[in-house]
Amino acid sequence: MKDFGPQIPKQVLDWKASGQDAVYDRKTLYDYMDGGAEVYLAFDFREVFVRKYADALENEVNLDIYDMGSPAEAFGLFSCDRQDPEAGIGQGSEYGPGLLRFWRGRYFVSITVSGNEEKAEKAVLMMGKAVAPLLGPDGALPDMIKLLPSAGLQAERTAYFHNHVHLSNRYFVASENILNLDERTECLFAEYRSESGESALLLVVRYPDAAITRAAAASFLKSFLPRADADRAALTENKKWSMIKTRENVLAVVFEASSKEYAGRLAEAIVRPLK
After folding, report:
1. 199-206 and 47-54 strand pairing
2. Reduced to 3 states, what is the DSSP secondary structure of residue 206?
3. Threshold 0.85, pTM exceeds
4. Contact 185/206 with Cβ under 8 angstroms?
5. CATH of the domain at 72
6. In whole angstroms, what is the distance from residue 44 CA to residue 26 CA?
7. Which one, of 57, 61, 82, lies nearest residue 126 by Cα?
8. Other C-beta atoms within 10 Å of 211: how many?
9. Is the peptide bond before 137 cis (omega within 30 degrees of 0)?
10. Cβ neighbour number for residue 31 with a 10 Å cutoff
11. Nearest-angstrom CA–CA distance, 166 and 108
12. How far apart are alpha carbons 121 and 14 in whole angstroms?
C-alpha cells in the first residue's frame, strides 16, 4: 500500500498533504478508527493507506484507500452504505457533501472533509479522479448477483455482505443472529418495485452447505415467522408478507412484500433448480 504514496498528488488545488502517510492492517485498524473498524473487518479487509490534506484555513481532507482483497469485497463495502448520487468515478461511486466513496478492482476509497465542505468539493472530486486510475484494472461483481431476478430490481440499492452486522445496518431482522450468518456466508440484500406497483425486500444467503442452510431456515421460522403457513409465508404486523424458501445451500427470505403472490415469485426465482 505504501507504493501509492509517490503516485498520488501531494497537492490538489489549495489542499496540501500534511503529516506522514500511514498504513493500517487488520491488527492496527482499531488504532485508526476505534468506533468503526468492525464494518471493515467484517469483510476481507487487508490494509488501508491514509493521507491527510489541509488548506491554509485548516480545513482537512482525508484520503483512505482500502485494499479489500478482492473486487467482490470492495464492491461489498461500497454497496452497504449507498445513499448519495453517482459521481462517475471508478466502477461505482457516490458523492454527498463532504464525502466521496467509490470502488475499483479490489480497492475501496473514501475521501472525507472536515471543515468547509462546499469549498473542498472540487478538490475532493479531482482527488478521486486522480486516484481511480491507480487502482485498476476493473474487477468483477460478486457472482451471486446473477441469482437475483432482474425484473423490478433496484440495482443501485443492492448490497453484498457476510454477517449479521451488515444485515442489521441495512434491515433489522432481530437482535440475535437468527440466520446464523458469519464470515463463511455470502449475502445479498435487494429492493424490488415492479411496474405494476408491487414491492418487496429480498435477502439471499449462500451457506457453506445444505445442513447449515436447513438449520438457519428452522431458526428463522421459529423466531421471525412462528405463524408461517404451509408455504412458509405469513402476513406480518405491518400487513406485509414475509416468506422463506431454501434449495441446497441457498436461502431466500422475502420481507415486506405487497402480496403473498409477489413474495412467492421472488423467492421461487432464487430457489428453483438450475437448468
Report:
1. unpaired
2. strand
3. yes
4. yes
5. 3.40.1000
6. 9
7. 61
8. 10
9. yes
10. 10
11. 17
12. 12
Q: How far apart are the first and last CA of the chain?
A: 43
Q: What is the pLDDT along the chain (275 residues), one digit of tens a residue?
A: 668 889 999 999 999 999 999 999 999 999 999 778 999 999 999 999 999 999 988 889 999 999 999 999 999 999 998 889 999 999 999 999 999 999 999 999 999 999 889 999 999 999 999 999 999 899 999 999 999 999 999 999 999 999 998 999 899 999 999 999 999 999 999 999 999 999 999 999 999 999 999 999 999 999 999 999 999 999 999 999 999 999 999 999 999 999 999 999 999 999 985 54
95's enclosing H/E stretch is: strand 92-96
Q: Which amino acid is at 3?
A: D
* Contact between 170 and 159 (Cβ < 8 Å): yes
Domain stops at, among 135, 153, 187: 135
Domain that holds residue 235: 143-271
Q: What is the total residue count of the chain?
A: 275
- Tell me: do 168 and 104 sit in the same domain: no
From the number of C-beta atoms within 10 Å of its C-beta (0-12, 13-18, 19+), residue 36 rates as exposed
What contacts 24+ positions apart, CB below 8 Å, involve 47-50? 47/1, 47/23, 48/1, 48/23, 48/24, 49/1, 49/2, 49/4, 49/5, 49/21, 49/22, 49/23, 50/21, 50/22, 50/23, 50/24
Tell which of 110, 135, 160 closes a domain: 135
